[in-house]
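Design job #97: recover the sequence.
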């Protein structure tokens, strides 16, 4: 809302439209290109121009806009947040001389694609920037919410002091810690799904919730086409456990990614070297990999006489272990621990890997283009997976167990060379 009471709605690409006082309808036509975006250096590696997510605050006679630029899914250095100000809500906008407010300057930084800042004034008068970035050490967690303190300069611009950056210690905001308010657990005591859960709208009518239970009307014959209730985890390590009661003819379990454990009525997928009678396994454990049940040996199926079971998955930094219990107290561990697969192998995976590791080690898309036989534009569009220089160096030092590389290798002209000796 502007200082004169007029309301505006701001869009990507600098578009603005006036809205009615009740905020429920628009007035007039969309006003295009009211702001062109901060002209970041052309030498920067970005995904796209992607001017988006404008946010407006008013302070001391100025309207301040924070905008996102550079794209969120491109190179580590792509994303950023920039600041502009104007005397009026529709511009003209003046770019901050301190831009960008937030940005990942190098792929060697731990936090990648930092941007999309929202400015908040605390009740004690301090200012803070909430934004997101990807922890390059824990990419499976995707974008994380980050916080940095903001200072105002004497001439009215926002800055983040050089002493603060993502991952560094910052002053603790005043006030009481009341928690995040979004529990990862659920006792299903309410009459609707908690905020933490996600499920397709067309499957909602298959759920019944309340009195401490979640009842699911089963569908399909595997996790890929069944009723799947999803929860995005927020920690690198975690534990999942539930209590299940399964009706005859149904199958249920829990998954971490596409691997998990559950229970079904009889007829388990048994290893081909073993035979069984359905009466031997009134209820049998099910182990899932890549979303499908895998064959088990008879000794892994023993002891399950009830349709009630407590499955549990323990994820310790992507190392998954699987357990079952009949009472939630005594646990049977399955000898099928694995490292969680974050990505499926793709077509041309060796070419992808070569180009990514070459760019990571030598910081030259041009050299990678010459060696791989692709144009630079094709590499940027299809084959670029930016990694840290350290990880790339470690990759290129992988050799068979009975081999060892010289300790004095140096990087020259897009290669690793041993000084004064032939190239390696």
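Job complete. Output follows.
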């Amino acid at each position: 809302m502007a200082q004169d009471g007029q309301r505006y709605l701001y869009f990507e690409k600098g578009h603005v439209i006036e809205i009615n006082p009740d905020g429920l309808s628009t007035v007039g036509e969309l006003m295009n290109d009211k702001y062109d975006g901060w002209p970041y250096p052309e030498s920067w590696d970005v995904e796209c121009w992607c001017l988006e997510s404008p946010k407006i605050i008013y302070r001391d006679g100025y309207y301040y806009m924070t905008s996102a630029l550079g794209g969120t899914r491109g190179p580590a250095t792509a994303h950023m947040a920039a600041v502009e100000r104007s005397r009026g809500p529709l511009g003209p906008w003046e770019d901050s001389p301190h831009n960008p407010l937030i940005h990942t300057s190098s792929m060697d930084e731990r936090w990648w694609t930092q941007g999309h800042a929202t400015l908040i004034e605390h009740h004690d008068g301090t200012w803070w920037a909430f934004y997101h970035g990807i922890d390059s050490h824990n990419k499976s967690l995707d974008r994380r919410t980050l916080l940095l303190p903001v200072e105002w300069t004497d001439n009215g611009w926002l800055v983040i002091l050089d002493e603060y950056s993502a991952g560094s210690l910052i002053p603790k905001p005043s006030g009481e810690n009341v928690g995040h308010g979004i529990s990862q657990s659920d006792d299903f005591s309410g009459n609707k799904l908690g905020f933490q859960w996600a499920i397709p709208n067309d499957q909602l009518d298959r759920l019944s919730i309340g009195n401490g239970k979640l009842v699911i009307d089963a569908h399909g014959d595997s996790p890929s086409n069944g009723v799947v209730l999803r929860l995005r985890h927020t920690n690198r390590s975690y534990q999942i456990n539930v209590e299940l009661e399964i009706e005859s003819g149904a199958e249920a379990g829990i998954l971490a990614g596409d691997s998990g454990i559950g229970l079904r009525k009889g007829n388990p997928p048994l290893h081909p070297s073993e035979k069984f009678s359905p009466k031997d396994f009134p209820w049998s454990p099910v182990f899932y990999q890549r979303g499908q049940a895998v064959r088990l040996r008879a000794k892994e199926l023993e002891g399950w006489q009830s349709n009630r079971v407590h499955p549990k998955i323990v994820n310790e930094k992507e190392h998954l272990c699987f357990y079952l219990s009949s009472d939630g107290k005594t646990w049977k561990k399955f000898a099928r621990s694995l490292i969680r697969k974050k990505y499926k192998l793709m077509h041309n995976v060796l070419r992808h890997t070569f180009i990514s590791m070459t760019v990571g080690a030598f910081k030259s898309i041009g050299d990678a283009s010459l060696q791989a036989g692709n144009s630079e534009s094709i590499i940027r569009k299809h084959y670029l997976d930016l990694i840290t220089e350290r990880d790339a160096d470690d990759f290129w030092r992988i050799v068979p167990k009975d081999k060892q590389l010289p300790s004095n290798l140096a990087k020259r002209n897009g290669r690793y060379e041993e000084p004064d000796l032939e190239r390696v």
